[in-house]
């Protein structure tokens, strides 16, 4: 009885203690904060732990862009001011004019000090889309989200005269070059300059005098247009124009051939050979057809061509295309591909390889191909080939490029010069007198740094046809080197025309002395012919834009 009573007393005591403990727990802390949102400021007494909890308790909802100061996850404290900033983002489009620039084109067609407006400037038009941010209805930032050209601006182009800045020099035969996108012809004297085209859009891919010098074969670029067609527009077209002076205008004659990679007159001036490509949207903008055509041209402007070679893949890297060169006797066309040099019999279309080598891996959207040249007797072909590596690198990465020649019957294959660089561009001279003997030489460019021949500068050099008597001609030691380019022999074999600092120069092969023929700095593509039906001393049909060093 006493035990039971004791237990009852203990239970009652424990129960009383529990009630006392519960009654002694303090209530949750409450704080008073100030809420500023949607143009209204109010006080809120709350036991919420964080800013986000307080906003939820006050039924204030946040949009995706809205901001809260201080941050949503900070703990509340007495007297805290919480501001809600309503953020709205809008896009607004406006049209605006764009300023045009001004181009100065130096021309020796005007006396020094004179100028002529070639094209008036015209502002362009663009659409500008702004991203505008508003905070509580007030604009706080405006940033350009997109610009779209609606109409391109046209620069003002002013021709500034430079005639008289260089002294004239005698010219034998006919020397032609491109100046400011137009074809210019010199005869008798460099002071006698005849601009035979006026479109200003020669692309330099084809620029070739007929052997008699009376006609010019050239390609001009075609404007890029927006089209919904399934095929892309052609990138150039082929034309012929007379180079002789007439009392009236000399209208150019279209050959109705487009997207041309290479073209040149036959040595007798009666035919034109050419190859074509298909335009594509990816670099470099074309895919070679690896075809070959031969056409007849007459003074009435009619041009009819027959296909010698059907389109093909063209071998390794055939999408770039091959270079070609007529033999002086007109029987063959030499070719240079990424991995092969050879020639094609024009009559039978028989293909004869002369040398094979590893392709050069450029790691870019261009392909190295050699440019062949013929000896004056049509028995030998010379070209640069890709050599074997001298270190542990792969064959495709070799930086070795050597100049070789081959007899077309296969009996002779000899290296004429080692480590010339990939852009040596050998060009065989016409036959000329050296002492009491007739001889020919090979002009080529020698890389300043053969281990970096894709980007280095070059020096003009000449040697005998067997590789002996090597001489470096131009520019002199210590001067900045030449940019890679084909050069042109004079008909007498005693001068070479080339481009230096964007001006046309003549270099004497006897001593390397040079004289400028132009001073306007807008020239390229020299080609030179004796004015007779014979081999032209140039390498036309070469477009290096986009990957030659600048």
Q: Summarize this, please?
A:
The chain has 550 residues and is mainly beta.
Provide an overview of this structure.
This protein is mainly β and 550 residues long. The chain has 3 domains: 28-85, Ubiquitin-like (UB roll) (Roll); 90-156, Resuscitation-promoting factor rpfb fold (Single Sheet), CATH 2.20.230; 166-220 and 234-529, 6 Propeller (Neuraminidase). It is 5% helix and 47% strand. The protein has 2 helices and 40 strands. Strands 17, 18, 19, 20 and 21 form a 5-stranded antiparallel beta sheet that branches. Strands 2-1-4-3 form a 4-stranded mixed beta sheet, with helices on one face. The protein is elongated, with a radius of gyration of 39 Å.
Report Rg.
Answer: 39 Å
CATH class of the largest domain reads: Mainly Beta
The number of helical segments is 2
Name the average pLDDT: 86
Query: How much β-strand is present in the residues?
Result: over 45%
The biggest sheet amounts to: 5 strands, antiparallel
Kindly list the characteristics that best describe this protein.
four-stranded mixed sheet, 3 domains, five-stranded antiparallel sheet, single chain, Neuraminidase, mainly beta, disordered C terminus, about 550 residues, Resuscitation-promoting factor rpfb fold, Ubiquitin-like (UB roll)
């Amino acid at each position: 009885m006493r035990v039971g009573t004791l237990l009852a007393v203990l239970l009652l005591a424990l129960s009383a203690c529990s009630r006392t403990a519960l009654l002694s727990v303090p209530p949750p802390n409450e704080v008073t904060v100030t809420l500023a949102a949607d143009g209204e400021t109010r006080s809120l007494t709350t036991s919420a732990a964080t800013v986000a909890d307080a906003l939820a308790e006050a039924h204030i909802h946040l949009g995706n862009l809205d901001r809260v100061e201080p941050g949503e996850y900070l703990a509340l404290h007495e007297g805290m001011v919480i501001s809600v900033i309503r953020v709205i983002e809008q896009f607004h489009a406006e049209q605006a004019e764009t300023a045009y620039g001004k181009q100065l084109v130096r021309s020796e067609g005007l006396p020094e000090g004179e100028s002529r407006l070639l094209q008036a400037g015209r502002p362009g038009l663009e659409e500008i889309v702004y991203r505008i941010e508003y905070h509580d209805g007030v604009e706080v930032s405006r940033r350009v989200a997109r610009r779209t050209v609606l109409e391109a601006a046209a620069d003002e182009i002013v021709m500034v005269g430079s005639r008289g800045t260089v002294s004239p020099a005698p010219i034998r035969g006919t020397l032609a070059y491109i100046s400011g996108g137009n074809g210019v012809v010199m005869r008798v004297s460099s002071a006698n300059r005849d601009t035979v085209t006026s479109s200003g859009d020669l692309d330099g891919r084809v620029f070739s005098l007929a052997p008699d010098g009376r006609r010019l074969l050239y390609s001009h670029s075609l404007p890029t247009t927006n089209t919904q067609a399934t095929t892309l527009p052609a990138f150039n077209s082929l034309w012929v124009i007379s180079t002789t002076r007439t009392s009236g205008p000399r209208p150019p004659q279209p050959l109705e051939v487009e997207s041309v990679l290479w073209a040149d007159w036959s040595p007798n001036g009666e035919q034109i050979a050419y190859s074509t490509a298909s335009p594509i949207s990816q670099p470099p903008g074309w895919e070679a057809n690896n075809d070959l055509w031969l056409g007849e041209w007459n003074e009435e402007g009619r041009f009819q061509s027959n296909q010698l070679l059907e389109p093909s893949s063209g071998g390794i890297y055939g999408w770039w295309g091959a270079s070609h060169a007529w033999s002086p006797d007109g029987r063959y066309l030499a070719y240079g591909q990424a991995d092969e040099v050879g020639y094609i019999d024009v009559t039978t279309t028989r293909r004869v390889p002369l040398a094979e080598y590893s392709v050069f891996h450029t790691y870019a959207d261009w392909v190295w191909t050699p440019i062949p040249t013929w000896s004056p007797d049509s028995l030998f072909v010379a070209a640069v080939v890709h050599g074997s590596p001298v270190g542990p690198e792969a064959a495709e990465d070799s930086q070795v490029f050597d100049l070789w020649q081959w007899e077309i019957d296969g009996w002779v294959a000899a290296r004429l010069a080692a480590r010339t660089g990939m852009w040596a561009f050998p060009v065989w001279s016409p036959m000329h007198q050296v002492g009491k003997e007739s001889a020919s030489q090979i002009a080529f460019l020698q890389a300043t740094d053969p281990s970096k021949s894709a980007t280095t500068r070059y020096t003009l050099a000449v040697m005998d046809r067997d590789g002996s008597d090597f001489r470096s001609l131009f520019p002199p030691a210590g001067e900045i080197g030449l940019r890679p380019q084909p050069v042109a022999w004079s008909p007498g074999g005693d001068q070479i025309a080339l481009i230096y600092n964007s001006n046309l120069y003549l270099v004497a092969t006897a001593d390397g002395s040079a004289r400028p023929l132009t001073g306007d700095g807008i020239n390229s593509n020299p080609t030179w012919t004796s004015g007779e039906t014979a081999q032209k001393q140039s390498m036309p049909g070469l477009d290096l834009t986009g990957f030659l060093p600048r």
